[in-house]
Amino acid sequence: MSKYLGEDDLILNTSSRIPVCLCIDTSASMRRVIDGTGRDTGETEFVDGKLWRIVEGGKNLLDNMNEGLEAFYKAINSNEQAKLSCELAVVTFDDEARVLEDFGTLDKKRPVRISETGDNTALGEGISLALKLLETRKREYRKNGVDYYQPWLVIFTDGDASDSVAEARQKIRSLEEEKKLTVFTFALSDDVNMKALGELSRRRPISLKTDKLEEFFEWLGKSVSTVSMSQVGEKLKLDTSGMDDWAEI
To answer: What does residue 83 show for φ and ψ, rounded to 5 degrees?
Structure first.
């Protein structure tokens, strides 16, 4: 796990911050092969609530997620203001939630890569940990007199939660009502209960085409860059004109 650079960075770099926390499902089903090139071994295994055929080779959903993350870093670092303003944290969740990367500006980070997976989908625990990280980081901004934009929480899952999301859902809704959080939720497979996912946030969930994750992260990086060049508190409308290329509405 990468730790953030600490309060010295908040003193030396006085740019207003955009805290973005990615909350990513790393249950075993994220290793599903999606490009059709894997070799079916004829064996099966019951994980993540389903019976899966064991396939060797091929590109899986986790590979696409890692390529998408690289695209996000590239998009942010191509903008001089964004790379000093955007702070990224990554939380993953499967059998448990963990901090893969704590907050810090992307100009001093290398793209994080996800490799671990577990059998379950502890979505509620993952969201709760992400919200805790965001709240902690906001306190550090205030302590050091650093302005910040409304935090972003971006949730990805390819299945239904194996734990309770009631507490996390209540916290998200409360923060949204107070205009203290922007939330995006994305379903990465047809196995996701969209009604349940839609209850997490006021913004409806989007079914994201799994082979278009890189395009989505490029859009996300450009959107964060746009915010970084605005005034704190200014209302912005994100450009979604290219959304049909990577999302199913």
So the answer is: -70, -15
Task: Give the mean pLDDT per block of 10 residues along the chain (249 residues).
Answer: 56 87 94 68 55 60 92 92 93 96 88 89 97 96 92 95 96 96 92 93 89 87 87 70 56
Helix (H) or strand (E) holding 90: strand 86-93
Strand 39-47 with 50-56, pairing: antiparallel
The tokens for 29 are: 């089903």
| Contact by Cβ (8 Å): 92, 27 | no
Q: What angle do CA 61, 65, 68 make, to 5 degrees?
A: 140
| Of residues 108, 111, 156, 154, the one with CA closest to residue 134 | 154
Closest CA to 231 of 144, 150, 143, 140: 150
Cβ burial of 142 (10 Å; 0-12, 13-18, 19+) is exposed
Residue 213 DSSP code:
H
